[in-house]
User: Fold these one by one.
Assistant:
Number 1:
Amino acid sequence: MSEIELPLFADRHNHPYLYATLRAGLDLSQAECGEQAADWIRRRLAEQPPADGEFLLCHGWSSGLGEMPHALLEQPAGVVLFHRSLHQLQINSRAAAQLARSYPDEVQKLEDRKWFELNFQRVLNWFAGVGLTAAGLEEFYRWQRSLGVGYVEELLCCGSRELALFAEAGLSSRTRFWASPATWEQLNEAERREVYGLKLFLDGALGSWTAALLEPYSDQPEHRGFLLYDDYELAELIYRLAPSGKGLAIHAIGDAATQQAVRICRQLGTRLHGFAEVRLEHAQLITREDAEWARRLGLMLCLQPNFSIDSTDYLERLGEQRARLNNPFRMLIDEIGFEPGIDLLFGTDGMPHGAEFAIRQGFSPPFPEQQLTLAELSAGFSGAPVGEGRIVCLCDDELREIRVVLAE
Ligand SMILES: [Zn+2]
C-alpha cells in the first residue's frame, strides 16, 4: 500500500456563484425516486417555508430517473427543480406564476428545449445569487477546501453583482470569470477587466438529450440533439469577439458540437490569435480527427473526469459503442499528445463537487480508455494556491482511501 500526496485541486470548470446559491436550497442528488424527492420537498417547505415571492430551489435531480412527475411538484409554495446537468429545469405552477411577474414572455418558453439552451445563461441568472451574501460565498469556498479544492473557476459569470460579491468576500483571486457575450455587453470598463474570458454554448448536455450528436441518440432514433448556431452565425460571432483579447471558452459536449467548434476554428485561422486562449469545454465526444485538429490549432481542452460515469449512467441513450468513446483520455494523451496541466485541464462542473469523485472516476472509470493516473489528475487539476493543504490517497491496485488534510 502506498500513500500519495497531491496538492489541493484547482477546479477549472465550475459555477461557484450559482452553486453557492443552490447550497441554501434542497439537495436531491440522493433521491431514488420522485415520491421520495417530493417527500423531502414537502418536509423542507413545512420546516422552512420560502418568504413571500421566493421559491425553494432544488438541485441535483438525476435525469437518469426521468422527469420529476409534475403532479409531485405541485406543493403549497413555489418550487424550482434543477436537474443535475443544469440543462433541464422544472417549475411548479406557483413558481411559474411568480416568475411570470418579472419574465412574462420567457416563462412560457421554458419547455421549449432549444429556446432554453439558447437562453441558458439568461434563465440561470434569474436564480443565481438570489439571497447570496459574501459570507455565503466564503462558506462555499471553505466547503470546497474541505473537499480538496482551493481554486474554483467560474464558467457562468452572472455580471456586476457577482463580481462585486467576490471582491467583497476577498475571493476574486480564487477564480477566473468567464461571461457570456450578453453579460459582457452589460459590464462597464472596469468590470470587463475583471473578466478573463467569454463563454459560448454550441450545444446542450447528454443529461437532457440536447448534446449535439453525429448519430442519433440510441433511445431516440429520430433525435440527434441540436446545434445552437449555424456555422455562419458562429464564425461571425467568434470573429467579432476575437479583438477583445480575452479568452474564449466553447461549450461543446456532443461529437457534432466538438466538430463544429474545430471546423469554425479552422476557418477562422489566424483570426483566433485575437484571443488570449481558446478552450473547448467538456468535449466528451470528439473524433480522433477533430482532436488532432484541435491540438494543431492550439486549442486547450477542459474535460471532466467525473463525466466518465456518463458511459454507465447514459448507456441507453449513448449505446454500447459510443459509451466507450466518452471522455477518451487515453486517445487524447497517448495518441494525440495533449498534456494534462498544459493543454488538457480538468474540472468537476460541480457534478459532484470536490476532489474525491473526480479522482475515483479518473482512476477507475467504466472503460480503460478513460483511465487517468494520479499524476495526470494532479497535473490537470493544478494551479490552486499552495500551502493550504493536501489530498492524501492510499492505494495499491485500487484506491483504498482519499482524504483531505488542511493546513492549520
Ligand atoms: Zn458547466
Note: The longest strand covers residues 149-157.
Number 2:
Amino acid sequence: MSQSPVAVGPPRNPLLLPQIGDPLLAQVLERPSRGLAEATRPNFVQNPRSPVQWTGPDFDKMEDSREPLLEWPSVLSQFNAEAFLRDGACVLERVMTPAAIEAWSEALLQGQQCNDRLISGDWTQIDWAGLGRTPPNTAVTTADREKALGGSQTMPQSDDEAGVQTLRQHSVFAEYFSAGHVGFLMNVMTHPQMLDLQRLCLKAETVYFDHNQLLTRAPGYAGGAWHSHKIGAGNDDGVTVADLDAYRRQPNINLTLCYPQGFSADADGGLKLVSGSHLFRDPAGCRAPDDDALRAGWLKDRRHPVTGRALEIEHLALPPGSIVCCLSHAAHAVAPKAQDRSTRWCSLFCYRKADEENGIVQPPHAVPPVWSLKAQRGELPATLTQLVQHSFDRELTGGRVGTFDQ
Ligand SMILES: O=C(O)CCC(=O)C(=O)O
Ligand SMILES: [Fe+2]
C-alpha cells in the first residue's frame, strides 16, 4: 500500500477562508479569473465559449433574448404554499413552455456530451497547475470511465488521488455546475421565473444559489437509494418540528428537479418521495437501499407529525415539462432504469434562504471557485453576483466556511 497521504480535494468555499493553506491554490486565486476559467475548459472537451468564458456582452445577449421558461399561471394554480410546507414537496406538471422543453432537452444532451468528452479524454492534457493542483499520479480505470459515460454521479470520488474531486470542485465536469457549460442552463439558473419559483417555495424575497447538477439516468441505471439532505446550522439533528412556520424559518434548501421529458412510474428512473418525512429532519437516519428496507426500518411506526397519517412511499410519473420542488430534508430515491428504456433527463437547481432567526446564510454546497472569484471582483451581472454572494462574503455567512457549519 502507498505510504503517501491521500490527496484531499480543494476546500469547498476557498474565498470564505481567512487564509488559503495551499500555496498553489492561493496563487491561482490571486491571478485574473480568465486563467482559472481557461484551466476549467480543456481543449478536448470542445466547449470553448461556455458561460465560464463569457464577458459582459454575452450576459447582456442572454438577458436580451430571454423568453419565458414557465407557464406561470399553471405554476400558480398548482402551487399551494401550505401543502408544500406540510408535505415537503410539490409536483408541477407540464409547467415548461413548449420552447423551453425543446431548449432544455437540447441543453441537457449538450451538457452530457461535454461530460462524456471529459470522462473519455486524456487527463494528462489538463492544466492541473492552472487548477491549483499538482498532477495526479493515479488514473481512473478504463472500466470505471466506460461505466460513467452517458450518466451522472458515477465517477469514483471517495478521494482525490486521480483528481476527480478537483475536477468536480472546479466544474471541469459539465455535470457539476452545468450552468457554467451550457448557455441555456445559465439562463435557467438566473431566470426571473426560476427565481420567483424559489421565492414562492422558500417564502423569502432574497434567495441564494446552492448547487446545480445534471442528473442523467441512462438505461441500466441501478436506481438511487433512499436519502435526504442536510441544511446545516444545527437543523439536521433528528428533532421533529410540527410547527410549519418554525420549519419555514430555518435556512431551508429547495431542490428543484426539472424533467423536460418526464418519466413513467415503473423502471424508468423516476423520482420517489415520502410526504411529511422532512419534518423529522433526520438525514442521518432516513436512509435505506430500497423501498422494502425503508418500510421495514425508518418508516415503521412513524406518522406524519401534522396530519397523523401513516407515511407512504409515492412513485411519481410525470409528463414532459414537469418540475418537482422538494425541501432538502424530504426523503427521496430514484427508481432503476430498465435496459430497454431511453435515458431519463433531469437538471437539478438548488437554492437556499437565510436563517430567519439570525439572518445568516449558510455557505453553498457547490459554487465553483472561478464563479466566486468573478462575483467577488465585480465581473458578473448583479443578479448572478447576489445569487452566489454567500460563497465569498464572510459577513453574510457569519464567518461560516462549510455548508453544514453550526
Ligand atoms: O436523479 C434524481 O431524480 C434525484 C437525485 C438525487 O436525489 C440527488 O442527486 O440528490
Ligand atoms: Fe438527493
Note: The chain has a mean pLDDT of 96.
